[in-house]
Amino acid sequence: IKTIDDLDVNGKRVLVRADLNVPIEDGEVADDTRIKRVLPTISKLKQGGAKVILMSHLGRPKGERSPETSLRPVAERVEKLLNGGPVLFLDDCVGPDVEKGLETLATGDVAVLENLRYHKGEESNDLGFARQLAALGDIYVDDAFSSAHRAHASVEAIAHLMPAYAGKLMMAEISALRTALADPERPVMAIVGGAKVSTKIDVLKNLATRVDVLVVGGGMANTLLNAQGVNVGNSLYEPDFVETVKDVLASAKRAGCEIFLPVDEVVAKELAPGTEWAVCDVNAIPSDMMVLDQGPKSIERLKARLGEMRTLLWNGPLGAFEVAPFGKGTLALAEESGRLSKEGKLISIAGGGDTVRALNMVGATPDFTYVSTAGGAFLEWLAGRQLPAVIALASGQVNAKHEAV
Ligand code: 3PG
Predict the structure, then answer these.
(1) Domain co-membership, 148 together with 31
(2) N or C: more exposed end of the chain, with fewer CB within 10 A?
(3) Domain that holds residue 312
(4) Is 345 tagged catalytic?
(5) ipTM of the prediction
(6) Do residues 161 and 93 both lie within one domain?
(7) Is 6 part of any domain?
(8) Do 358 and 395 belong to one domain?
(9) Angle between helices 72-82 and 33-47 (to 10 degrees)
(10) Using one digit for the tens of pLDDT, what is the confidence trace for 141-181?
(11) Quaternary structure per UniProt (predicted)?
């Protein structure tokens, strides 16, 4: 993959695909983490004398314009964060008006185009739409790792149409995931949590053959426990996946991967704040109760095992962490992994919205070695799948398929 490190961009129009898909509340950006993470690329291009054109999707508008999915507030935030010179917002992403607007850009200027998904050609990876986008710039830079699992025009087709480079965030994300999975310092532990096994079954399958310890948490753990004969009471679990999970357990065994499950649980009759709760042994879950967090013994055991690890890869909470007091396990784990990382004992890589929220809740984010901006793309990578946008960038040249059209 070619990077922007040694790229001469002086006077060039650089079309940057960023992932500016951020939460908008009351017409304002509610969390600008993703915008901040793309700033190093923007600044480098500006300093190099480029005219920077940012493009992104926001939400899932399915071709329909609406104020809730407009990138206008994002452009305003970009301007604020860049702290120098106005940022030009154009209310479309292709067409003559956009082309005219971009003619006003001077060296070092920045423009933000309107939501790519207002055009159906974006999601259908339409070549004609990609050509219209490509016509706006001289060089293409992809800095949207978190959209790399989508074979969409602005990340896939376009990369075959013009000189294509990876931005700084894209490279940082790829290199962090390689550190954790392709060539990790061992022993390596992966923690996979969340509500449903069905959404992460391929992640479990892949990790079970690659890491030394695989910790399964959240509702997912219930299905694994059930596969081992544990009665999980009234808990969320997926009977249809019990057989698949048994295969995962068997392949982990063959690969010498230890599957780490809770030994005690926090249970309650319902998931509600202030509800009555209790701690019980994993083999004594009452039939009318549901598991909502891992118990204190499980957490201590997990912390001790984590202390023996060199690398941690984490995606998904251990319990219903957004409802107190069921976040104790997840938050204790966030604190402990942050502490070990800060002391230089652990290489820690985390990704996914819930996990990042948990890290933020205890202030552990800065201590982590790497926190990914990606959700779906992070999971696809953990599942061992190749990401279409990364393949397109790596192919590095105009694809015959596209040339022929
Ligand atoms: C994300 O938030 O994971 C990315 O921006 C991709 O968004 P999407 O799931 O709507 O494609």
Answers:
(1) yes
(2) C
(3) 174-374
(4) no
(5) 0.99
(6) yes
(7) no
(8) no
(9) 60
(10) 999 999 999 999 999 999 999 999 999 999 999 999 999 99
(11) Monomer.
